[in-house]
Every structure is written in C-alpha cells, then in structure tokens.
Amino acid sequence: MKVTDVQAFNLANRTVLVKVTTDEGIVGWGECSPMQPPVIVAHIEHTLARLVVGEDPFDLERLVERMFVTPYKIAGQALAIAISGIEIALWDIIGKALGVPVYKLLGGAYRTKSPRLRVQHAKGHFAARGSEAVSGVGGKVRFSCRESARRRSVRR
C-alpha cells in the first residue's frame, strides 16, 4: 500500500482537515489544531505532502521523523501542527486497513463511560455552545448548576 494523495482543507479559518488517500482506495482523515489555518494548509500542500506521497502509511514513525527533519529550516509550531494532522490521517488508514479502531492501536480504551461535564453559572449562549461541542463528538452532556453555589453568589 502506498500513499497517493495528501489534501488539506481550511474550514472557515477555524480548523484544518487532512485527507490522505492510498492506492488501495483507503482514505484517512486527520484534524489539525485551529491555529493559523492558512499557514497549516500551506505547510501541508507545499512542504509535507511530497514527503508522504509514494510511501507506505505503515511506516508511520519513519514518516513522522522525515516530516520533522527534512524541512528543519522552517521548523516551528505551525509545522508541528501540520504534521500532527497527517499523522492522525495515517493512523486512520492503518486502523481501516487492519479493521481495528485507532484507539485499539494506541493501547485500548481508557474510559468505558463518557466523563460527566459540570458547568456552573453557565448561561444561555455558553451552555448551548458547550452542548454543541460535546454532541459533535457523540458524547452526552449533563449540565449541573448547583443551587447552593448560585444562592451563595446572590447573597454576597
């Protein structure tokens, strides 16, 4: 199996998605930290893609080191963020090729239940935004505003 294409997508200057395609038709997706999306996309398209295309995605450690070492003169946080998106996509490809979820490749499940999210003094917009963020990843949200905490703040 060889990588045939690497693409980066700037989503409304909020985050960057990375799509890595193989000659066997397996597609892996990764996400980069939302810092400087245009710079991240440029790093992926102009510097890093050529280092990965034609390579075996199972050679992950070698590829990551190559992406860090080869463009050493432009090293920095933005480059590391770009590399992370490609690395996540490569892990996705490996998991799909083996028929195993990525979390199993990385050591198995840590939690069997979603952690409880506690938000105190959240009002309208902020509570709704928190719910959106967690529901987008399939988690459950339970908002618990303690009545006693609210009463204490009113008394002062």
Descriptive keywords:
single chain, 156 residues, alpha+beta, Enolase-like, domain 1, 2 domains, 6 helices, 3 strands, globular
Could you please describe the fold and organization of this structure?
Strands 1-2-3 form a three-stranded antiparallel beta sheet. Strand 1 (3-11) and strand 2 form a beta hairpin. Mean pLDDT is 81; it is low at 136-153. The protein has two domains: 3-105, 2-Layer Sandwich (Enolase-like, domain 1), CATH 3.30.390; 111-156, no CATH class. The radius of gyration is 20 Å and the shape is globular. The longest helix has 22 residues, at 77-98. Helices cover 47% and strands 15% of the residues. It is α+β, with helices and mostly antiparallel strands and 156 residues long.
Summarize the structure.
The chain contains six helices and three strands; from the N terminus they run βββαααααα. It is an alpha+beta fold.
Distance between the ends: 66 Å
- Alpha plus pi helix count: 6
Shape: globular
If classified by CATH, what would the architecture of the largest domain be? Answer: 2-Layer Sandwich
Please tell me how large the radius of gyration is: 20 Å
Strand arrangement, major sheet: 1-2-3
| CATH fold-level label of the largest domain | Enolase-like, domain 1
Count the strands?
Answer: 3
**DSSP helix fraction:** 40-55%
Which stretches of 5+ consecutive residues score pLDDT under 50? 136-153
Kindly report the average pLDDT value: 81
What class, by secondary structure content? alpha+beta
The ordered string of helix (H) and strand (E) elements is EEEHHHHHH
Query: Percent of residues in beta strands?
Result: 5-15%
For the record, the CATH class of the largest domain is Alpha Beta
Largest sheet: 3 strands, antiparallel
Whole-number total of structural domains: 2
Please identify which CATH superfamily of the largest domain we are dealing with. Answer: Enolase-like, N-terminal domain
